Amino acid sequence: QVQLMESGGGSVQAGGSLTLSCAASGDSYATLCMGWFRQLPGEEREGVAVIDTGEDDTWYGDSVKGRFAISQGNVRNTVYLQMNSLKAEDTAMYYCAAAFYEGNCRLNPADYEFWGQGTQVTVSS
After folding, report:
1. Secondary structure of the chain: what % helix, strand, coil (to 5)?
2. CA distances for 124 relative to 80, 100, 111, 121, angstroms
3. How many Å apart are CA 96 and CA 107, to the nearest integer?
4. Measuring CA to CA, how many Å separate 83 from each of 35, 39, 124?
5. How confident is the model at residue 14 (pLDDT cuts 50, 70, 90)?
């Protein structure tokens, strides 16, 4: 079992930056796929960025490439999402997710077993 604790989020003007963080506990020394998904009410959950905590390989959704960066901190299985050049369309509830690594990490939310509570990101134009 893995528990996820998120922090960060909030409100910012378009063009600004925010950083989200997510710390895994429980079976947190295993190699994980960890990352962020976002969702608007009534819409499907969208993959934003994920990282393989063993090799630090990363994957990004097309809408955030070049603006967002996911990284792992000094503490194993703690990841950060640096969000730059934020746009109004980045407004959503952001969820941290994790899954035990099985050779590949994908941006498909169905692959992830463990989820955080979510943190709201609001970008005003």
Report:
1. 5, 55, 40
2. 22, 36, 32, 10
3. 12
4. 13, 16, 14
5. very high
- Whether the per-residue pLDDT at 28 is higher than 70: the answer is no
Do 22 and 16 meet the contact criterion of CB atoms below 8 Å apart? no
- Report yes or no: 114 and 99 within 8 Å, Cβ to Cβ: yes
Neighbours of 54 (CB within 10 A): 14
Strands 10-13, 119-124: pairing is parallel
Question: Residues 94-121: pLDDT tens digits?
Answer: 999 999 988 899 999 999 999 999 999 9
Return the SS3 of 83: strand
